[in-house]
């Protein structure tokens, strides 16, 4: 499934193509996609295919095509502080992007059938938290994953604001999926070969919208134990943050505001000067050609402009020189604070860079 947009040379170019094709339509979704490099969720030997608009599967590991994830993210209408349940959470790629939007006071849970995929997702999540500069640009709602069949979720579990199922749902399981939603919630799932958005408008009222035709592998039916009983999946409890954790969130938020204010007062870029260039016009008259120069007010400075332009070209960095890596201003600010080192690293979530 996929192939709706051209392949990109890197993650940003892939996102540019998704935007141009109108799969990504909102700023929040665009920011989340740009913040997490899709290639980081591929095995090393398959990374050359990461920026193609194609699904990828290796063993139990699976990623949907970028155009599908784009439509899912847009349809979920995510907002900070919401609760999200990902059924068939896989590599955790989608859950991590969702976590960037939900923020520190959201809920981000995933259910995955295969324990080896859960372990893979945890490794990728840990790598993102430890090494990605994007982590410091957002307030992250870290996903929690549990192993089990998503058709065996305990009936006493909490309901969610947003639910996504990453496998084809049979018609007989539609009501089961809809009952995972709070009133006002949104469910997105492949239903009868259509990516479908269902909004719960009341205790027994629903609005359904078909988004696009898709082809997903069907949900795996539960395997009952020898006793004939199903193994119920217990979702993670909604955690209450400690006062210490809340203080870290508040301090980081304050520092980000200071950085933003400094950036507004002292922009870190130089505005390019717009110059008028000399114009030449060809005039046709009685089959003879005359070249005449059009005068304009900026002509007096044309020589100076051309000389300045030449100097700027000489001063430009050679093409083969790599650009400077992006600066993590939050990290710089925290490390400059007059605080004990253990507290600084706590504020940085003990990240490596």
From TrEMBL:
<dbReference type="GO" id="GO:0005737">
    <property type="term" value="C:cytoplasm"/>
</dbReference>
<keyword id="KW-0963">Cytoplasm</keyword>
<feature type="compositionally biased region" description="Basic and acidic residues">
    <location>
        <begin position="313"/>
        <end position="323"/>
    </location>
</feature>
<comment type="similarity">
    <text>Belongs to the methyltransferase superfamily. L-isoaspartyl/D-aspartyl protein methyltransferase family.</text>
</comment>
<protein>
    <submittedName>
        <fullName>Protein-L-isoaspartate (D-aspartate) O-methyltransferase domain containing 2</fullName>
    </submittedName>
</protein>
<dbReference type="InterPro" id="IPR000682">
    <property type="entry name" value="PCMT"/>
</dbReference>
<dbReference type="GO" id="GO:0004719">
    <property type="term" value="F:protein-L-isoaspartate (D-aspartate) O-methyltransferase activity"/>
</dbReference>
<feature type="region of interest" description="Disordered">
    <location>
        <begin position="295"/>
        <end position="328"/>
    </location>
</feature>
<feature type="compositionally biased region" description="Acidic residues">
    <location>
        <begin position="301"/>
        <end position="312"/>
    </location>
</feature>
<dbReference type="InterPro" id="IPR029063">
    <property type="entry name" value="SAM-dependent_MTases_sf"/>
</dbReference>
<dbReference type="Pfam" id="PF01135">
    <property type="entry name" value="PCMT"/>
</dbReference>
């Amino acid at each position: 499934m996929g192939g709706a947009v051209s392949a990109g040379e890197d993650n940003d170019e892939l996102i540019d193509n998704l935007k141009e094709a109108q799969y990504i339509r909102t700023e929040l979704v665009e920011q989340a996609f740009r913040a997490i490099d899709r290639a980081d969720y591929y095995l090393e030997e398959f990374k050359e295919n990461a920026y193609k608009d194609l699904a990828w599967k290796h063993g139990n590991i699976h990623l949907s095509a970028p155009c599908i994830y784009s439509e899912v993210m847009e349809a979920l209408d995510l907002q900070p502080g919401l609760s999200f349940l990902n059924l068939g959470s896989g590599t955790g790629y989608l859950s991590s992007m969702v976590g960037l939007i939900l923020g520190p006071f959201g809920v981000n849970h995933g259910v995955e059938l295969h324990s080896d995929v859960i372990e893979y997702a945890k490794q990728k999540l840990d790598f993102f938290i430890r090494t990605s500069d994007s982590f410091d640009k957002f307030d992250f709602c870290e996903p929690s994953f549990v192993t089990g069949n998503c058709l065996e979720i305990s009936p006493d579990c909490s309901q969610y604001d947003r639910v996504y199922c990453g496998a084809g749902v049979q018609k007989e399981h539609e009501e089961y999926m809809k009952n995972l939603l709070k009133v006002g919630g949104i469910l997105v799932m492949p239903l009868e070969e259509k990516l479908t958005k269902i909004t719960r408008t009341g205790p027994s009222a629903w609005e359904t919208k078909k988004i696009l035709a898709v082809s997903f592998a069907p949900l795996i039916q539960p395997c009952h134990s020898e006793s004939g009983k199903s193994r119920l999946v217990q979702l993670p409890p909604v955690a209450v943050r400690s006062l210490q954790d809340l203080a870290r969130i508040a301090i980081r938020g304050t520092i980000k505001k200071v950085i933003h204010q400094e950036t507004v007062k002292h922009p870190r870029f130089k505005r390019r000067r717009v110059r008028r260039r000399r114009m030449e016009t060809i005039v046709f008259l009685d089959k003879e050609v005359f070249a005449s120069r059009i005068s304009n007010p900026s002509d007096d400075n044309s020589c100076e402009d051309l000389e300045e332009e030449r100097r700027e070209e000489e001063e430009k960095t050679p093409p083969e020189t790599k650009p400077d890596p992006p600066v993590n201003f939050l990290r710089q600010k925290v490390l400059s604070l007059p605080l004990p080192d253990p507290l600084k690293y706590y504020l940085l979530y003990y990240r490596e860079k």
